[in-house]
Structure formats: C-alpha cells, structure tokens
Amino acid sequence: MKVKTDKGTKEYRTVWFDRESNAVRMINQPLLPHRFEIIDLKNYRETASAISNMVVRGAGAIGATGAYGLAQGCLAFRGNLKDFWKHVEKVYQTLKNTRPTAVDLVNGMDFVIREVKKGNSLEECQELAIKTSQKFADEDAEHCKMIGEHGEKLIKNGFRVLTHCNAGWLAFVDWGSATAPMYRAKRKDKEIFVFVDETRPRLQGARLTAWELSQEGIKHAIIADNAAGYYMKRGEVDMVIVGSDRTVAETGDVANKIGTYEKAVLAKENNIPFYVAIPMSTLDWNLGSGEEIPIEERDGEEVLFAWGSDGKGERVKVRVANASSLARNPAFDVTPAKYITGIITPRGIFKPEELVKLKD
Prior knowledge:
The protein is α/β, with parallel strands linked by helices. The chain has two domains: 2-144, Four Helix Bundle (Hemerythrin (Met), subunit A), CATH 1.20.120.420; 150-358, Rossmann fold. The protein is 35% helix and 20% strand. It has ten helices and 18 strands. The chain has helices spanning 44-52, 59-76, 81-96, 104-116, 122-151, 180-187, 204-216, 228-233, 260-269, 301-304, and strands at residues 2-5, 8-11, 15-18, 23-27, 38-41, 160-163, 193-197, 219-223, 239-242, 246-248, 254-257, 274-277, 283-284, 305-309, 315-319, 332-335, 342-345, 348-350. The chain has a seven-stranded mixed β-sheet, sandwiched between helices. The protein has a four-stranded mixed β-sheet with strand order 13-10-11-16, covered by helices on one side. A three-stranded antiparallel β-sheet has the order 3-4-5.
C-alpha cells in the first residue's frame, strides 16, 4: 500500500523476506504513527520475538511472518537431512509459542511444512521453504484484495463505517481485511467516512488504522472505544466492519481484538449490519465453537501505561493508572455468530452458518 515519505509516495508490504541476507524485513509498527521505520530480523529467534512483542501484529501479517520465519530457520541450517527435521521442529515450536489466539500463524507454517516434506535433499527442502513462504504471503495479499472486491459492494456512497482495532494492510501483507472494502470503495470514487475505535490498551485504531486511512486520503475520526454506542444510537453509523484473528468454520464464531463483542452487541441492538472480513487462513476447521478458542492474556502494564510522542519526536512511556493498582489484559474476545450479519471472504459473502461450504 501507499506510504507518504519525505521522498514522495512509495508502495510497501507489511512484511517481506530478503533471501540474500536471510532476513525477515518488516515495518516496525510500535513506532507508528510518529516514525516510519523498517526493521531487519536476522534469525528465526528475532522473528519470533517480533511476533510476541507485537513489532508485527494482525492475523495475516503474523501468518506471513511465521511462514517467513520458518523458511528463515530452514535456510540457516547446516547439517544432514535427519537433523534438519529436528531443527525444523524447534523453529516451528519457537514461532508457534509466541501468540496463541491467531490461527494464521500455525496455518502459515503448516502451509510451508507440507511442501518442504516433498524435498529429497537439504537444498531442495530449503528451496521449497523459501518458495512456499513467499506463496503464502502472496496469497494473503491476493485474498485481501478479493475481500475488497466483494465487500465494496456493501458500502453505499456516503456511508459511515465503524471499525475496531487495525484490520488494515498493516495487519496483513497488503490491503487488509476490514479496510480492503473501504480502500476499494475509495478507488471507485465513493464518499465514505470511517469511525475509528481507538482500541485500548495498545491503541491500534488510533495509531495504525487512522494512519493508514490518512495515507489513503479517507475521511475519518478517532473515537474513544466507549463512544461507539453513542454514535450508533444517534443513527450516525451505517455499518460495522471488523477483522478476525480466528473464525470457527463450524459455527461462524469469531475471535477478534478485545472490544469487538461489545460492538457486535451494540450493532444488533441498533439494527446496524455487522460484518467480519477474513482471508481463508483465518478459518479454524478443528474447533467446535468459539468457546474453545484460547484467549491470550497479555501483560497488565499495557493497560497501566501508555506510549506516545513527547512532541519532539521522541517515544515516551507514561503511567496512566494508580501506582499500586494491577490490571487484567485479555487481548481478544469471542463474538458469537448470532451477532454477525455476514462474513466477507475472498470467495464471497456468507452467513456465519454457511462457512462450512468453503471446505475444499
């Protein structure tokens, strides 16, 4: 997507792989919107750390980073084929254990491993790992583009859309899921306005989604998370589009950034369509319901403290809570299918109960 720099506008992906240096390269997201920086991760452990520390975040971007990280670990190995597979398992587990909720991470690595197993030599296995990880990333970008094609039809000229967290191109390889229909609508010259939930505690809406929309020239306003119901009740929201970190194919239940469930309930109460946009890699075909989705609980310091710019371009951390208080910090919640109007996929728009049709 487009990024405005001092030297003009340049196209970027969120994450990519540099084979020559065996480095995973990505946009350093915690620095946004105050500073745009590319970071190089020189080995799979650094790549795993970038996932757990949320240098990269978002379902598709994590999936692609996991796929690249696995390929990175494969390419770095020196030894025989038998020991290679022990090494691959170590790399796999290191990356897998970074974040438990988003299923794209495991799906991305499994996608790579299935192809690598077809190799008959170390060199062939390494080549397959690189090729397949790139294919996974390219498919993520293409899936999001198709989500935009299908979802754009739901957005009428003049619509006011509310979104939660960042399900934009920063959360994927390109285009995004929830934002893809908005970007496509803008390219079709539709006038739209976006309400951007700030998304406490990491403020991905205020920091990332608003930055993206600004790059794209889409009119928007950041609102406090607890202001969404106010605007819905006043009739100022025409539809809600959010992303998903894991969608249970059997039921259509959706795990997404904490606060999504609240928005879905509010939308239902105010008769506002509530859509979820997902690439195919976000579907979980193994779980029976959303209640089985593991919910990551992150460090309470994310709630007690906030990061920002001091006005001089320096990134600073400040405490916003009482000094002796503790915090609970679930990163995700689960929205039951009954609150979801439809799920936008690369293959079309489906009712939650219709997702089972997508199984190949």
